[in-house]
Amino acid sequence: MSVQGYVQVYTGEGKGKTTAALGLALRALGAGKRVFILQFMKEQVYSEHRILPHLSENLCLETIGKPFFLIKEGSMPEEELAKWAKKAVVFPPGKPPQEYLDLLAKGMARAQEVVTSGEYDLVILDEINVALHFGLVTWAQVEDLIKYKGEHVELVLTGRGAPPELIERADLVTEMKEIKHYYQTKGVEARKGIEN
């Protein structure tokens, strides 16, 4: 008899959402469970990509995205936007770049395949909340993932900006709240092995 799987959401402005999901993956692997991680909005440029594929034959890691950020026009002061000039794509609200829409459509198709396959016990959709926030995927698509997931599948959705509909639908929601961050207080950029 298989164990009931639930829907978990890790959201909020603070650091640690992906880190928490990866910790859960490690715990699940230790228990002999099969784990699938699909990272939206990322390429394999983070330190975890060097080790995760070698941890276990029960772990599958895939990425779908680009290594820079999206910013909606008018959502950030010009001074702050200037800092992100070479690291971000700026687009008008409601009009994300078509190449992103096409890329994320492939990711959603893959996610649907995985959550319904019965092959995995834990499925982590990292940064899917961000894709939802930017209109790269729809709430209807995410709701279908939840609705049609295998009964035993534990589904984890991470990223800032989880919408109220997702928070309502989830079984467990954790909000990471930033109290203090060395980026703000000391200007410390992302460090290899800690933030990336």
**Gross morphology:** globular
- Share in β-strands: 15-25%
CATH domain topology: Rossmann fold
Low-confidence stretches: none
Order of helices and strands: EHEHEEHEHEHHEHEH
Description of the structure:
The structure is a single chain. The chain is an alpha/beta fold and 196 residues long. It has a single domain (7-186), classed as P-loop containing nucleotide triphosphate hydrolases (Rossmann fold). The chain has eight helices and eight strands, in the order βαβαββαβαβααβαβα. The strands form two sheets. It has a six-stranded parallel β-sheet with strand order 3-2-6-7-1-8, with helices on both faces. Strands 4-5 form a two-stranded parallel sheet. α4 (98-117) packs parallel to α6. The longest helix is centred in the middle third of the chain and has 20 residues, at 98-117.
Give a short summary of the structure.
By secondary structure, this protein is of the alpha/beta class. It contains eight helices and eight strands.
Task: Name the descriptors.
196 residues; two-stranded parallel ribbon; 38% helix; alpha/beta; Rossmann fold
